[in-house]
Amino acid sequence: MYRDSFDAVILAGGNSIRFGTDKCEFEIDGKSMLKRVAELFELPIIVTDKPRDIKGKIVQDNWKDGPLKALKLALKLVSKEKVFVTGCDFPFLSRGLVEILCSKQEHVATTLTCGKIQPLLSCYSLDYLKTHIDNFKSMTDLLINSPSVYIAGLREITMIDPHLRTLLNVNRVSDLWKTQRGFWNTRIWNNTTRLFVL
Asked: What is the pTM of this model?
């Protein structure tokens, strides 16, 4: 049983069009992708557009208006200074990565895969979210406009997950057989005051 020093938000809505079925309920080794993620946290906040039989604080998203709006709904239940945000489509997420990201002092701590930041694999300052979430139209905007960003580097992540499965974003069934070879093709935004890559 984990005792979290941060809140965790899992976005479990969407149409799963590319997946072909509700990917949150897709089972890997007898366990749904949503459950695999949710069990990493003490009491996650789960934003969903359908009933879910899962331990956590359930937030109903009847609008299905994208991840940023879903996160805004979840913020009503957030009380801790840091908020880890993810989706059910990271079924191999490592608790170690979450703890690394949420231990950082920057407004946002995130990861890179295939040269792209992962706003749904990031830890945010609650103050930053509450102050700025209404100013942006997407999760990426929220991340790249942060005054400070920490990007976890390859060496740092391989210490907890040598095969980088924690970064695997599953949008199609075929993604389950992907490797993370493109991980280190990085792009870095330079509009932040403090940016670290190890």
From this structure: 0.88
